[in-house]
Amino acid sequence: MEFSPELPATWTDREWLAFLLLLAAEVDGVIHAREMRLLHVELGREAVDRMHAVHAAYPQEKRDLMLKESLPFRLPSPKSRQKVQQVLRKLVMADGEYSREEQQLIKRVTNWLRTQN
To answer: Residue 83: its pLDDT value, please?
Structure first.
């Protein structure tokens, strides 16, 4: 299946994870250099840059909807959901603080994951 920015089902796992983590990194209003460095190291510059362009092309509500709708098929097992939650927490702490916006995003994603069970 060919890559389509609007269809998360066409994204690789690496691209989807980059999308999720970019959403988390930007939730406090700015993507810090440490967060981007962590993403580039963990996921590769190409995947992160591609998803950064996708991320920038849509408003927050659309990005949230894309994420919410893609969770069931991207994270089918409890173990995969737990891993993603751990990575999310690691990323939001990369800038040295755990802001209210980051807490709300973690809670929102956790609630979405919980409703998938």
So the answer is: 84
50: domain CATH number is 1.10.3680
**Structure confidence at residue 117 (pLDDT):** 57
Q: Domain of 86?
A: 8-115
Residue 2 lies inside a defined structural domain of this protein: no
- Tokens 């709300």, residue located: 104
Neighbours of 26 (CB within 10 A): 19
Domain-located, residue 104: yes
CA 116 → CA 24, 53, 103, 106, distances in Å? 20, 28, 20, 15
For residue 64 the two structure tokens come to 């949230």
- Distant-in-sequence, close-in-space partners of 24: CB < 8 Å, separation ≥ 6: 88, 91, 92, 102, 105, 106
In a domain, 50, yes or no: yes
| pLDDT tens track for 18-50 | 898 888 888 777 777 888 888 888 889 999 999
Provide the domain count of the chain.
1
